[in-house]
Amino acid sequence: MNAIMKLHHQFATASVAALVACALSGTAGAQAVQAEPVAPAQQQDTGGESNTRDTADIVVTGSRITTSGFNAPTPTQVIGEEQIANNAQPNIFNTIAQLPSLQGSTGASTGTFSTSSGQQGLSSFSLRGLGPIRTLTLLDGQRVVAANVTGVPDISMFPQLLVKRVDVVTGGASASYGSDAVGGVVNFITDTHFEGFKGNILGSITKYGDDETALVQGAWGKSFADGRLHVVLSGEYDHEGGVGAGDFGTDLAGSRDWYRATTLMNTGITNNGLPQFNYRDYAQPYQYSRYGLINSGPLQGIAFDQNGVPYNFQYGSNGQPLGNGRVSNCYPGNSFCVGGDLTGAPGSGASLKSELERINGYGRIGYEFADNNEAYVTVNIAQVKTNNQPSPGYNRPSLTVQCANAFLPQLIKDRCATAGITSFGYGSSNANFPDPHVYTDRKQYRFVGGLKGAVGVAGTEWNYDAYYQHGITISDINVRDIVLQNRYVAATNAIVLNGAIVCADPVARANGCQPINIFGGAPPSASALAYVAPGDNGPFQHTKLTQDVASLNISGSPFESWAGPVSVAFGGEYRREFYRVNADPYGAGVSDLSPNSPEYPADPLLNSQLGSNWAAGNYKNGRGKYEVWEGYLEVDLPIINSDAMGRANLNGAARVTNYSTSGTVWTWKIGGTWDTPLDGVRLRAVTSRDVRAPNLSELFAAPTVTTLPNFTDPFRNQAVQVFQNTIGNTNLQPEVARNTELGIVLSRPSWAPGLSLSFDYYNIKLSGVVSSLSADQIVRFCFEGNQAFCGGFQLDGPQGTNFVNVQPFNLASWKTNGFDIEASYQWQQPLGLPGNFTVRALATHIRKFIVEAGIAGVDPVDQAGANNGNTPDWKWLAVQTYDSGRFSLTVQERWFSDGTFGNQYVVCQSSCPVSTGNHPTIDYNTMKGAFYVDIGASFDITDKITVYGKVDNLFDKDPVAAPQTNTGLDINPALYDTLGRIYRAGVRFNF
């Protein structure tokens, strides 16, 4: 029987309670697993690294107290090694992210529609829907250098095979662990004293024949010098093929057929008694087509096929071109019809999942220089590479074409003459262009040296843990086949000169312009492509992040009260965060680079100083740093310890933190637990003040430019292309949260020794939230008369100059509350069969999630139940496992409830109120939830070799539409499975 099966079998024979506490539910608040007799293999350190040798003291994540029998008041969910193995995922992140309390986590299936975010393939957790930046992720109780300027680490870079347990603290823990622990803490505990050799090989593929995955993991550990010197090494390689892009129109990758181009159609009319927005499938953008469409003027409605032959475009909604850029019977607010020719719509052409490759190497050497005292060094080196396609071709809806264009068919030139025009409006998806791709490459180097152990002082044993960490992340983003916009415009304006077709602009010609035929599907020449989309010099961003941490934590029980030993923990930490980013001159400008370098020659058509010349991926240069000094004190005071009254304790902590950017802030918590005289009943409560300091990106980011190709201009009631400029703000202050939790636990009562239940209510109030209004909100609020929003945008400027500025401020406040329910039960020898059967379930209900923008004229919005976001009303996870000792079968169900597109909408069919930016009217606002079933099994071939298999999304449940008001792939991968059924198989071994 391999090690994992041994663990499971010992749980069954030694203690049902230990199974529940260590494997999943944590319903006793991640209590000391030594509370019941447990086989030696089950004794664990539930805090940072494993204690040296054998010890009864533990650390509970969410507290710094180190003592036997301590019960933390903050609820903690625990995912054990067995569940991690049973879930059979190539990335442990996927297993943890399924917990209902985690909402809005990012991974390889999110962020694939973006060119400029730089977060493709970044695996990071979000607790309570508060975002990854408000969840503190630790490795063995220690901070980890960020993988992105937002400050979040990448779980893909952790030594995953050595993880023996993951503690998820579902409440504020800033007083114990510092900044960022507003939503809670996710702490990965590794087996730092692993002995032997173990490995895991996994392969998987979807029903549709894509996302082929190969995972190989190995770990080795051995003791030397009479057990005092211990060495652990691990390595892993994971390649996930991803799910590539579909084609234009509604064709997705593989044979997936669920895409309907669903969109919220905007009538542009707010006060006629009808809904402004209409939910419709098969949205047809009427400003462009696959190979080109005349979209305004007397010739509006003439399109071009692949061979460049003109034809009359088939509009949806029985629409007819009106000559003014609009189409009858269609939706002018965002330029859509329903049905018709959809072959030029780019929404389905985005990757559903990034291709991902990760390599991870880890080593630890520890030397026990005295009993229970160890010096250690760890090294973790990892690389994660991803690539994806954010969209196909190059969507350009707002060109002006001259009737004299050399490539324009003579028929259209004649029609121009007849109509008496010299130019017309034109839009094209440029399906004849190469599809753009985004490549990310993150390398991380993390070094930790530390001392930990226990020493006696004045008759009292004190535990200490001191370490220094230096971490470096090097992140490179390269975008290929993105055009330089002004060069593209110049290349499309072609004339005949001396018998040859050339670019009309003499300045452009002098700087290498090569003409492009945009009428039809003929691909541009190699020289033309090199001019408009220089492949070797596409957008790039090179980022270096460093993190230095020096930390000292001391804990002990210096004296006893009337009810037991009083425990204290105290310590301090210094942290320095730094980043520097360099980008290409075409995107960033040339203020600190040579404008005449061979790679980036000067070009009068381009903005050499400000940059932002690319159609997307206009990265900027920047740098910044901050330092943090902090100290804390935590006390656990037993107050009741008797047969009549039970056992109770009070737990309190305070931390003072000084940020070099924003000054000093205090955090604190106070709570307690009471093991009542009632059989198995425990009460717990905690309230805390928590903070999140602004991250490097929010403070110091230079302008980041995102292209919005189909932005709604409410002043002219039409779609335009704009640049969204996002910049940092060095005056930001820390966000402050008040977090309160109340809970009741039924744990292993004598009348049902296999049962554990818990109910925990939470309430979080977060003020000074660093946030920005969206570009659409800024423009719409100005349109509705709020002059405070009118100075930061331009919508009617010359080609390529329209913009909306977006900047973060401590504007918003969030209020969320709800409750968590956990339950588990285990039957030994069910129905007379050998082994045991375990049922576990976790559920989270979000009662409200109110977001207040903090700006006059902007109404609060309750996002609870908005399935277009991350916070469904209900979310649960249920697992049933039968284990005979040699064979195991696991069935898992994942579910979240029906919701809305957004709770700001007013649903009506007629007699509608006036539609506003705060409360737009809509004809339909229901977004169905989803129910997924996974099934897996394993079989021990020998005591040391196990084969296993698993099917995720057994019934191949398709995602429902998550409609927006613009062109795009209308899904929400943060909630819905977008890949379909996945088959997995592998083998584990342990020698």
TrEMBL record:
Major place of localization? membrane
Keyword Signal part of the UniProt annotation? yes
Subcellular localization(s) per the UniProt record:
Cell outer membrane
Could you state one GO cellular component term attached to this entry? cell outer membrane
Q: Does the keyword Membrane apply?
A: yes
| Chain segments annotated as transmembrane | none
Q: Which SUPFAM superfamilies match?
A: Porins (SSF56935)
- Species whose genome carries this gene: Sphingobium ummariense RL-3
Q: Which Gene3D superfamilies match?
A: TonB-dependent receptor, beta-barrel domain, TonB-dependent receptor, plug domain
Q: Which PROSITE patterns match?
A: PROKAR_LIPOPROTEIN, TONB_DEPENDENT_REC_2, TONB_DEPENDENT_REC_3
Tell me the InterPro entries matching this sequence. Beta-barrel_TonB, Beta-barrel_TonB_sf, Plug_dom, Plug_dom_sf, TonB-dep_rcpt-like, TonB_rcpt_CS
Low complexity bias located where?
Answer: 35-44
Protein name, entry field: TonB-denpendent receptor
Where the record annotates domain TonB-dependent receptor-like beta-barrel, the positions are 459-954
Residue span, TonB-dependent receptor plug domain: 71-185
